[in-house]
Specification:
Helix content is 32%, strand content 15%. It has helices at residues 2-10, 83-90, 101-111, 126-134, 136-150, and strands spanning 18-23, 26-34, 46-51, 62-65. By secondary structure, it is α+β, with helices and mostly antiparallel strands. The protein has one domain (2-150): Ubiquitin Conjugating Enzyme (Roll), CATH 3.10.110. The protein has a 4-stranded antiparallel β-sheet with strand order 1-2-3-4, with helices on one face. It is built from 5 helices and 4 strands. Helix 2 (83-90) packs across helix 3.
């Protein structure tokens, strides 16, 4: 738990997760805001829930979107993020004990980068994945419209480290 507290303190003033809060007095469950960089998600912010396992950092945190988001790797109804998607974005060593929540933030941003959709084979939202595969323009329009409808007001700019 000491490492989790240190990592939360590390986020203060960082250009990563915003409005980090402990949920229900449980140090292992946080909510925070993610501000994507690129279209179609860059017009707003998304609330995420990060649940740290008791054996963190040896096991990766669980990520879920509280704010609805139309993405192939994010379940529309539950907000659950496909762990395989994180693997596809971050590679076979997408999580290791040497990583921290700043690294997790970068994995999320890269997953939301639709210019490089290397995660199509790992979808939890079959409709979004099919639309992206067959009609990318329509997918981008749908995702952008739903972002405008559901996302939180964007209050900060974020640095792109996905390149």
């Amino acid at each position: 738990m000491r490492r989790i507290s240190k990592e939360r303190d590390m986020l203060k003033g960082a250009n990563t997760f915003r409005n980090v809060e402990i949920e229900n007095d449980d140090e292992y469950v946080w909510t925070a805001i993610v501000h994507p960089i690129n279209p179609p998600y860059n017009s707003g912010g998304f609330k995420v829930r990060i649940t740290f396992p008791r054996d963190y950092p040896f096991k990766e945190p669980d990520i879920g979107f509280v704010t609805p988001i139309y993405h192939p790797c994010i379940c529309w109804t539950s907000g659950r993020v496909s762990a395989l998607c994180c693997y596809a974005v971050g590679g076979p060593d997408w999580w290791s004990p040497r990583l921290n929540v700043n690294d997790l933030y970068q994995v999320i941003l890269c997953m939301l980068d639709m210019e490089n959709p290397h995660h199509l084979g790992h979808s939890t939202n079959a409709e979004a994945a099919a639309e992206l595969r067959t009609d990318k323009a329509k997918f981008l329009e749908t995702a952008e419209n739903l972002t405008k409808k559901h996302s939180l007001a964007k209050t900060v700019e974020t640095v792109d480290n996905c390149s």
